[in-house]
Amino acid sequence: MKICRFEYNGQAFKGIITNDEIQIVQNEDNEYCSLLGKKIALDKVRMLKPVKPSKVVAVGLNYLEHIDEMGHGYVPNDPVLFIKTSSCVIGPMDNIILPKESERVDFEAELGVVIGKECNNVSPSDAKDYIYGYTCLNDVTARDLQRKDGQWTRGKGFRTFCPIGPYIETELDPGNVRVQGILNGEIKQDSTTNLLIKNVYELVSYISGIMTLLPGDIIATGTPKGVSPMKSGDTIEITIEGIGTLKNTII
Fold first, then answer.
1. Domains identified in the chain and CATH numbers
2. What is the pTM of this model?
3. Which residue, 43, 212, 217, 59, is CA-closest to 133?
4. Is the pLDDT of residue 33 over 90?
C-alpha cells in the first residue's frame, strides 16, 4: 500500500494511492473533513514529504563499492551513524538549495526505512514489527565540507539536504530491491539492497540499541557507488524498485 501526504485546494491531507488516484483518509489536523473518502486524480494535487520525522538516522559506508570509491580502505566493524535534522527534509519536486559555503554537492541514492512505533533495543528478528514502510531518500552531501571537517554534521546538514518521497510503500520486501540515482536522465548509481553490509533489520536493531526511534523517524540505509556532484539547474531522480521515483531540481 502506498501512503502519501499531499496538498489539495490549499489543505494538507494523507491518502492512499491506487493507480492514478489518491483516496483521502485523513486531513493534516486529524479532524473530520467532508472530503474523507473522496478520490482525487494524482495530477490534481501537489505531493508533500510523506512523513515529518523528528530525525533521520543515516548510515555511512554500508556498500563495499562505495567504501572503495570514497577511498576509506577499510570496512567498519559497526555501522557508521550520523544525524540529519528535520530541517533537512523536503518532499518530491521541492528544490535542493546549493549552499554558498560548498563547491561540491553530491547526491546519494538510498532506501529510507520509516519507523512505525517507538523502538528501543529490538532484535533483528523483531525489527520488522517496528517498520511502517519504505521510501526513496537522497542523502545530499557537501562533499568538500564533509572531508574538511572530518565529522559529517555540517556537510550533511544543510536545509533541503534530505529529500524523501514520493510516498511510503508499506508492503516492500527490502532484501533485494534496485536502487538508482539518475542525474539529468543519466543513470549514475545502480545497485541492489542485497549488497548492503548491514541489512535493514540489523540496522534497526543496532540503532534502537543506542537511541529511541520514534514513529515517523527515518533510517537512511547507505548509498551505493556512483555518487556524483550536482549543479544549479540539474534534476536528480532517486528510483527504488517497488516504491517509485523521487525527483528534485537543484537551485
1. 2-48 (2.30.30), 55-250 (3.90.850.10)
2. 0.96
3. 217
4. no
